[in-house]
Fold:
Amino acid sequence: MAHDGHPEFPSTRMRRNRSEDWVRRLTRESHVTPSDLIWPVFVQEGRGVRTPIPSMPGVDRLSIDLLVDAVGEAKSLGIPAIALFPVTPPELKTQDGDEATNPDNLVCRAVRDIKDAHDDIGVICDVALDPYTTHGQDGIVRDGEVLNDETVAALCAQAFVQAQAGCDVIAPSDMMDGRIGAIREALDEEGLEHVALLAYAAKYASAFYGPFRDAVGSAQNLGTADKRTYQMDPANTDEALREVALDVAEGADMVMVKPGMPYLDIVRRVKESFGLPTFAYQVSGEYSMLRGAADQGWLDWDKVILESILSFKRAGADGVLTYAAPEIAKLLGG
Ligand code: PBG
Structure:
């Protein structure tokens, strides 16, 4: 007997269950379907405008009209939700990111137009000030410090205008302390208790966000600064569980781990510890890494992108935010 109680070779032959496609399908543990996918999209001003992002080949910033069409396509592919990120015109960026709380800002207009055109597809809005600040930080900065409680007040106002515009899920990505509870309370007070909260509960200070910052134009605002006083240290795992526990206690409906593939151990621990809907964000740098290698002919894109999504499912994620969502849904025959 082998140590696991099963008979040893030659009675046991592991290859029997791998011998043909039918038995591989029959014994498969994890599956990817279009319902596992959330599609992050970049929205910009203008009409009929599509601008490629050089560091994310295959991903474009879209004006609202084109985005509305793209969301329709995503819906017909079976993708359950999109996550919106605005490319704020530089002249609207300020020290305190006031444009974030303008009820007619780009994101709010996009939400309204998407909701007018389509039903039964979830719209997720990011909450954080970085698309709107001249310094590119996610919060309000005074004397070089990102202020927590002042930022939380601004985030509540930002979440309110987005929820009012009709978004289904508010996703705070700022990593300020106490923001989930404060936003929940602010929304409930305004009769917006139906709007869900997806907490970027364990978000790391990662260099894999580089291409995203190019895409939304915050890279030049941030310059050489970093976000390590609020995003997590990539060396830590226990701290991630404390972050998630706090967000759950404050009212998060779903939680997220970000980045994705370099942090699958965190996905696994979070899912096992809390049993909440748990999502992983395959961030811009992960997308660009795979896409760049595929464009060079070094990797088979169709195969590696599906394998990467499977890795999240295996780790316990209920779904994945990925820039490749429509392509994956097509590969799956959606
Ligand atoms: C901003 C935000 C970031 C991402 C999502 N929301 C960047 C950052 O924290 O600097 C990164 C997403 C990606 O890299 O795909 N709060």
